[in-house]
């Protein structure tokens, strides 16, 4: 079940034996989204010069399209996954979405000729950032992150909807 804008991170995805083609098309979409992000980047940025820091920039940029409420520590609903009334806390990309997105982009980078040792999506900074986001969101929302429910892919091109990439079932990060 999904309440508007608040994906339920607790629902496990038993039925998400994602067909490879679906994963592949999602990956291609993500890769295009990232390519467009680079194209629109000011100052211009080529893939070859893209570092982990730029990937973090990209992830933060995606946050503006996020649909996951992340409570601040001042919010009375801090730690509540489903607050009874609206609060002004920001919407962010859910950790599970980002984690899955990075996984796909990391693969796409190498499939598109990138060298594994130069893969910005596999950089330490990105891993640390994802871990930070996971901790933050699990505390703020009072939930522990396991597998995320698979959402319907959003139609359309990558342009206006680099937002909220559907999580894939590939993320196996649970408790550490
Ligand atoms: Zn709040």
User: Which regions contain 5 or more consecutive residues with pLDDT less than 50?
Assistant: 5-15, 155-166, 168-176
What's the CATH class label of the domain at 22-141? Mainly Alpha
What is the residue-averaged pLDDT? 80
The radius of gyration computed from the alpha-carbon positions, rounded to a whole number of angstroms, is: 16 Å
CATH architecture of the domain at 22-141: Orthogonal Bundle
Order of helices and strands: HHEEHH
Strand order of the largest sheet: 1-2
The kinds of small molecule bound in this structure are: zinc ion
What about the largest sheet?
Answer: 2 strands, antiparallel
Share of β-strand residues:
under 5%
CATH fold field value of the domain at 22-141: DNA polymerase, domain 1
N→C terminal distance: 27 Å
Shape: elongated
GO molecular function: DNA binding
GO cellular component, one term: nucleus
Protein name: ALOG domain-containing protein
Region (Disordered): 1-27, 140-176
Structural write-up:
By secondary structure, the protein is mainly α. The chain is built from four helices and two strands; from the N terminus they run H-H-E-E-H-H. The chain has helices at residues 20-40, 52-63, 95-111, 124-141; strands spanning 68-69, 91-92. The protein has a two-stranded antiparallel sheet. Zinc ion binds at residues 71, 75, 77, 87, 89.
